[in-house]
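Exercise 7. Given the components listed, write out the predicted structure of the assembled complex. Treat all entries as one system.
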Amino acid sequence: MELFLQQVLNGLTLGGVYALVALGLTLVYGILHVPNFAHGAFYMAGAYSAFFLINRLGLNYWWGMAGAAVTVALISVLSERLVFHPLRKAPYLHHMIASIGILLFLEAGAQALWGADFHRMETPYTQLLTFGSLTLPAQRVLIIGAAFLLVVLLQLFLTKTITGATIVAMAQNREGAALVGIDATRVAMLTFAIAGALAGMAAVLYAPINLVYTSMGHLVITKAFVIIVLGGMGSVPGAIAGGLIIGFAEAFGAFYISTDYKDIIAFALLVLILSVRPQGLFARGAH
Amino acid sequence: MKMLNPTAGWTLLLVLALAFPFLAGNDYHLTVMSTAYIYAIATVGLNLITGYTGQFNLAHSGFMAVGAYTVGILTVDHGFTFWAALPLAGLVAGLLGVFVGLVSLRLKTHFFSIFTLCVGYIMFLLIEKWESLTHGTVGIVGIPAPEPVAGLDFSEPRALYYLVLGFLVASLWVMHRIVRSLLGRTFMAIRNSDDLAQALGIDLMRNKLLAFVLSVFFAGLAGGLYAGSVRFLGPGIAGVEHTFDMTMYMLVGGIGTLLGPLLGAIGVPWLTQYLQFLQEYRFVVFGPLLVLLVIFLPHGIVGTWLNRRRRRVARGAPTVPATAPAPVQEVRHA
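Answer.
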């Protein structure tokens, strides 16, 4: 039973991080109508900027996270302005290739600045918490708490504010949103900023229990793709549900099947589901 | 300047390639060129499904790795000769392509790309983790050089160079035959609009599958050659960044043309050689280059040149319609 609960908590940790990354990806998908491969590099950039602020400049963890959120939001908005905006009328293939260009640039840039070594990010939350018979590293509890707080805040922003509603409107139907007078340029920039900030914060949450290295975004972004396909491209609740499904599948798969093959489980799940339902589990018809 | 006609152009390229070993300063240059040719074979294959048929495949380096590991495992662990294992490299990759294609090609646009991205990752992770078959992260060492044929010792860089060049020329010829045939036209019709193609009575699934299997067959073959020429394999060869590399080669040269991906696959690695000081930071330059190309020169160098020439021909002789298919990637939004 304890082992089972331990896996539930592992699943929540992974699921929370994946959901944050997938949320940004799914929002940007609504704007671009193309999966943004550079999103994984945004995640990586978040970890590196926080690593720099915390380990080199000696700021505390939370300032590191805030710095990462701002930096990645900026990178994300710049990519939208400089790359995706000029391409908005181009075929989808060109968007995807351009996003690969951004990915290569950011990864090589991080490597040029900080080298190819693996880095360890410091966290002040190294103690172990005990709940009854369960022992938990504080950082994992923090990840779960912070991830769910961010998800709830984003959800409130999207549903309770006018600005949030314009993002959702544009994600759901770009042409329709333009018809009712939504300023597409402003919404696109805002969406990219939010997506970048979420990816950056997710990276800072997860990096202390993993490591910081230039290709750290690869697996995470690929899983985020799996999640948004599962959850329906462009769907916010879908991204949250999908994140949890993949998080749990991986945690339980690692425990009951094999740690070696845990990363394959998410991909195998997608391959299986798309073989049966090409439109994804919760697709809403179009797109 | 008078325009080169295609036959003369290709002959010139072939003569240059044949003369290269006599012009190259050292064996290192030969090895760089041989490896570039091997990736050119895989890129020419990728161009069939991505450039001509419009399905952006992200598992290509995975299929190349399958071919390479087929040769590596069969020769090192099972005592096959290189020549017996090489055709199997193409075959195994092709067979796997049938299975992957049957499922993935039902998906359109970026769904297909995401699916193949995951397939590529599954291949990479399987190669890394399935130690009893693939030797895991240790990799496969001691792959034999291709056994001598007619007295040519292929462990010698010059002979190996000509061997790889032979395969490249053969691959290009086969690809030329494919894209100039009715089948090639069918692929391009699917690329330009699969709805329209279907309305014309084209069996989408069958043709896409055929393009995909042919494409990954080239990747498998290139992988087999890679195993025989580098003679060492690690899981890294399946890395998705190699697919990105090949995509870049295609795009720099001109996607959906025969010459473009070839020139890209040969030119870009050479550019990297000359930009030695960049070393692993080459992507700091190439990333933005890729973005600029997509924005300002979406048809690549060869594609833009072909378009311009076609326009000039059309202006000069308005009564003659341009018969060659446009190398333009006219894919619509989903």
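Discussion: The beta strands of chain B are 140-141, 232-233. Residues 204-230 of chain B form the longest helix (27 residues).
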